Each structure stands twice: as structure tokens, then as C-alpha cells.
Amino acid sequence: MQLADALAELYLRAATQLPRDVEAALREAAKREDGVAKASLEMILENIKIAREEGRPICQDTGTPIFYVERPAAMSERELRAAILEATRRATKEIPLRSNSVDSLGGKNSGNNIHSGVPIIHFKEGERLRFQLLLKGGGSENSGGTYTLPNELGGRDLKGAAACVLDLVRKAQGKGCPPGILGVCIGSPKELVVQNSLRQFLRPLNERNAVPELQKFEDSLTAEINSTGIGPMGFGGKTTVLGVRACALSRHPASYFVDISYSCWALRRAGLEFGDGGAKFD
Amino acid sequence: MGVRNLIELQTPLSEKAVRALRIGDVVSLSGTIITARDRAHQHLFEKGSPLDLKGGVLYHCGPIINGGTAVSAGPTTSARLERFEPEIIRRFGIRAIIGKGGMGKATLAALKEHGCIYLSAVGGCGALLAKRVERVEGVHFLEEFGAPEAMWVFQVKHFPTVVTMDSHGNSLHAEVEAKTAGRA
């Protein structure tokens, strides 16, 4: 298998197979709910099954592709980028993915999901060749945002950050396809908090935060958000988020940003390790 | 909220059928629905419609279509279309809007005034909902707007939705927001 073939397969897996940890969290949520909220979650679970079995994209918005690539020192980023672009063209045509690349001025859709800076590719040097792919939905992306502390919600601490997250969730209501998953990054600079709040979606829902203080922040915030009653699709209910994943960067003394990325329930991520042993997906 | 009645509806929808619905009713819709999202709404608002929409159903959706078949076709966020929708309902005689996330006060007022209904489909369920599209009958503005933004004409069967804004001034979205928007 060529690398571009394996990457096209990675797209297929990400678009059509919801990660098991997310599915398990939805299944638990369905047990807690009743009425329209329960019916919605049951439909979501049925949809996940259809998508997996028939190889159909879970959601018609197949998102913005974001790649996190670990590469050995000897490997050319230029060549890896070329393989990713080829896989993107092919996956768009063959799966197919929806082309989400629209010229902001002229309105023309490129038709192949390739445009300025997209797919987004983050490289880092490591021991092996490994790809993680997120397909980030657009509707829920609109529900995210950046807050600057201090503000009328609070000061520069985790309490202030939690108030910002709650404010965002209340404003989002059902627009971001809850029950969602929130990625939170505290710190600065602004460019990095956005990248890192998105990166939180790589961490499985059943994996603990390595920083005890942040684990506590995630747990208490999850409980508090779920007590708002917004519920699945904003129909009212007990499950507004499946989880919160948080990280903290150091910061410039003047700045204390709280960036929140909102993922719809359809958090699509998939991994690939590519080497002498062939392609290994997870 | 609890599930109320399960109601089967066939397009074209009469004003009487629409007025009989209340929030919480589960509607299984069959017949013709037409996708329209951001660019189609702007076009309808500014320039008019390429097809007769009287008594019709608009679906806020940017589907994946392959070889004339719907592959994945769930709802998109309706709130972005709030600035156009009341006038579109009035001018074209729309009887039902399908979307997700709900719409605002102006649309709610238009639903009441003109006898229209807002139906929520479950967001993210593109695979399941595409299977309820029996035929893709046509498309408008495919070249100009691109596939996600084009107006696709769908024949659907048992398309599952729930009434979340009715023609009597009730909005489940407004109710939930009023309960959840307060400061902690």
C-alpha cells in the first residue's frame, strides 16, 4: 500500500466510523435521557451504525481536515504534504467527502477540499511516521470562541475560565449539535490557544488529564454544563456535553485567553501508523 | 420535553395540517422537500426562485450527492438564515422549514402569521436521513453555488422530524433557552 492509499483510507475511517469512546459516551447518555432527548440519541446511535456498515459519511459536513503528523528526521515534509493533498483529492471524489472549500471573495467551491492552508497540517519530528486526522465540522466550529480575562464573567483563574466556558455553552444552545465535546485552552498567545483547544479532541474521552488541577476543572465543568438542561440538540435534557478536555499554556503577562473549541457529538478522529510493517490504523 | 403525537404528513402541506401541529409532535414527512442554505436563501431573498415554492418545504441542508443519489444529508444550523427566512416564508408561501438548532423571534412570528412550521431534524444524522431520500429529482444553481449550497429537489419517505416551533407562537428553543440562559 502506498502512503497516499493509506491516507485516503484514513479519511474514509474518520468520516464513516465514529471513535468507539465517543459512541460509548453517547450510549451512556441515551440511558439517562427520556422523551425527545432520548429519541434523538437513539437516532444518532442508529446513524453511527448505518455510517459504519455502509461506508457513508456520518454527517454530510465532512468538515475541515486537520492532520497531526509525527515524522522521522529524514523524511521530507514537502513529500508528506504532497501525499496528503493527493489523498484529499481522492477521498473527496471516492468516499465522497463534501467539498468545503469556498473562495471567500468569489464564492467558488474548489470541489476538492483543497484551498489556502487546508488541509491543515501540523508536523513534528519523532521516531516514526504517524498521522492523526480530525475532520472538524463547520457548524459546531461557529459555536466556539475566544475570551479574554479578566472580563465581566471573572478573573484570571480557573474559576474565571469556567465562567467563560459556561457562557459560551449557554449562547450556543442547540446550534453546535450537542451533546458536544469541548476543547479548552488557557494562556497565550492567541494563535496557540486556538490550535491547542482543537488539539484536545485527540485525547480520548476515557483518558484522564495528566494535570490533576485540570482533571478537576474538566469534571466539575462537565457536571455544571450538564446541569444547565440544554440537552441533546438543545431539545432539553441531561446531556449537553460528553466531556471537556482542557490544557494550559504559559502566557504573556498581559494576556490570559480562554479559547474554546466546540465539537459536535460527531467528533471524527482516526490514526495511522505507516512504516515497514505497512499501514496500521487506530 | 416528552414526545407527543406521531403524525404522518404528505406534501403538499395544507395550512390546516400545519396549524394542527404543536411543539413536541413527531412528524414523519413524505413528499417533496427542497434544500436551501446560505446562498440559496440570499438568492431567494434578493432575486426570487427558479421554481414554484408555494406550499413547499425548505430543508436547511448541504448534502453529499453522488451519481444522483443522496449519500449523506442531515440538517445545517438554521440560525444563520434568520435574516432571510421571515420574508421568504411570506413571499413564497412556504409551509414548512426543516433545520436544526431553531430560529429566532422574527421567524416564529412569520410561522404564526403565514401558517408555517419549523421542524427539527437530528443534526449529524446525515447517513440515516439520506436513506429517507428516495430520489433526487433535480438541482438548481449547481454550477454557480457548488454542490453543498445548490438547491436540490428531494423526494423523501418517512423523513423523521420533530416540531420545535409551531404556528401558534410556541418555540421549544425559546423555552429551553429561557430556562438555561441564566447566570450560574
Instruction: For the record, give the distance between the C-alpha atoms at the N and C termini of chain B, rounded to a whole number.
Output: 22 Å
Return the structural class of chain A: alpha+beta
Helical content of chain A stands at 25-40%
Q: DSSP strand (E) fraction of chain A? A: 15-25%
The low-confidence runs of chain B, each spanning 5 or more residues with pLDDT under 50, are none
Biggest sheet of chain A: strands, sense, closure?
A: 5 strands, mixed
Task: Considering residues with a beta carbon less than 8 A from a beta carbon on another chain, report the largest interface and each chain's count.
Answer: A-B, 52 and 49 residues
Strands side by side in the biggest sheet of chain B: 2-3-6-7-9
User: How many helices of chain B in DSSP terms?
Assistant: 7
What is the N-to-C succession of helices and strands of chain B? EHEHEEEHEHEHEHEH
Verbal overview:
The complex is a heterodimer of chains A (282) and B (184). With 282 residues, chain A is α+β, with helices and mostly antiparallel strands. Chain A has helices at residues 3-16, 20-32, 35-54, 77-94, 138-141, 158-172, 190-199, 212-226, and strands at residues 64-71, 120-125, 130-136, 145-148, 180-187, 241-248, 257-263, 268-275, 278-281. In chain A, the strands form 2 sheets. Chain A has a 5-stranded mixed beta sheet with strand order 2-1-3-8-9. Chain A has a 4-stranded mixed beta sheet with strand order 4-7-5-6. The mean pLDDT of chain A is 97. Chain B is an alpha/beta fold and 184 residues long. In chain B, α4 (105-114) links the parallel β6 (96-99) and β7 (117-120). The two termini of chain B are 22 Å apart. At the A-B interface, α3 and α6 of A face α5, β9 and α7 of B.
